[in-house]
Amino acid sequence: MERRPVFIDCDPGIDDAVALMMAFQAAELDVRGISAVAGNVGLERTLGNALKIVELSGAAAPVYAGADRPMFGAPITAEHFHGEDGLLGAELPAPVRMPEAGPAWEALRREAEAWGGALEVVATGPLTNLGIALSLYPELAGLVRCVTMMGGAAAFGNTTPAAEFNVLADPEAAELVFRSGIPVVMCGLDVTHSTYITAREVEKLAALGSVQARLAAYFMGSGIKENARQFRTGGAPLHDPCAMMYAIDRSLFASKPCWIGVERHGKVTRGKTVTDAYSDAKRTANARLVTGSDREGFICRMMELFAGYGSEMPDEKF
Questions:
Q1: Which residues have C-beta within 8 Å of that of residue 231, sequence separation ≥ 6?
Q2: Residue 222's pLDDT is what?
Q3: DSSP 3-state of 94
Q4: What molecular function terms (GO) are annotated for this protein (predicted)?
Q5: Mean pLDDT by 10 residues, the chain (318 residues)
Q6: Are strands 253-258 and 287-293 parallel, antiparallel or unpaired?
Q7: Which end of the chain is more exposed for a tag (fewer CB within 10 A), N or C?
């Protein structure tokens, strides 16, 4: 199988961590670089967390520091969900490796140029790094094959009534990405809330035995009760893993082409991703909206990916 080059832009974050661990076991993906951005927690934490997950996974992908604040406006964070450290207090070994020299947007440009249009980007955090890259290097739009993002929604929000967290954290950057001409795949709340993991499935994941599987189970299991109460889902939504799994195997998903833009000015609606997916007023499509998944197939493939880490029983307690 020919591996496709991928650059991962993220803000770890518990679900970013799970998505990263999935990527490192996917035979379909050649992870060329990872960039951290401020989002779920501040940049110092997200960068350190990315380094920790890379080392825990036995991966060799270089890690770059990105933006420590949105392009405009004040930062918003989500420590209430991810913990002060971004990883719910999980005690992971301090990383030995250091971040690579130079900012994330320079690394993305170099990789995109080196791959001559074949590089894919998977973005599981605010799109600030991509927004900066496109502002500095408009030609980048012709060098990136696609951006698969976790963010937005056609129907509802989870941080405000209108907006999903990653887009709300930097609406201007998100709008730049949608306007860039790069094919965008939006894995938003429309699909992530119906692609969930149940308590029983979390137990099966932990039973695989490896520290990576147990850590993923700890992270995913933490949100089951809260999401069932707040959003009436059947389990914990697999937000960032959805975007990563789409990059791995899009046959597990249903999607439709549509136009997507970002509301940036309304006091109540700022950060809302506006689509024409269900309206009569059609525009030229600039994206694909992912609308559903084969949930059972998703869980099966996720289990296979984590089984690749082996079955040793670690001493770590999560």
A1: 158, 193, 237
A2: 86
A3: coil
A4: hydrolase activity
A5: 94 97 98 98 98 96 98 93 94 93 98 97 98 97 98 94 97 98 97 95 96 96 71 85 98 98 94 93 94 98 97 65
A6: antiparallel
A7: N
Token pair 């934490």 in the structure block, residue: 45
Q: In this structure, what token pair is assigned to residue 258?
A: 């549509």
**Pairing of the two strands 196-197 and 29-36:** unpaired
Per-residue pLDDT at 316? 64
3-state SS class at 202 = helix
At 280 the pLDDT is 85
Asked about 82 being catalytic, the answer comes back as no
Nearest-CA neighbor of 34 among 96, 115, 100? 100
Distance between CA atoms of residues 131 and 133, nearest Å: 5
From 80, 82, 239, 265, the catalytic residue: 239
* Residue 151 contacts residue 39 (beta carbons within 8 Å): no
**Per the structure block, which two tokens stand in for 293?**
């998944």
- Pick from 76, 167, 179, 183: which is nearest to 127 by CA? 167
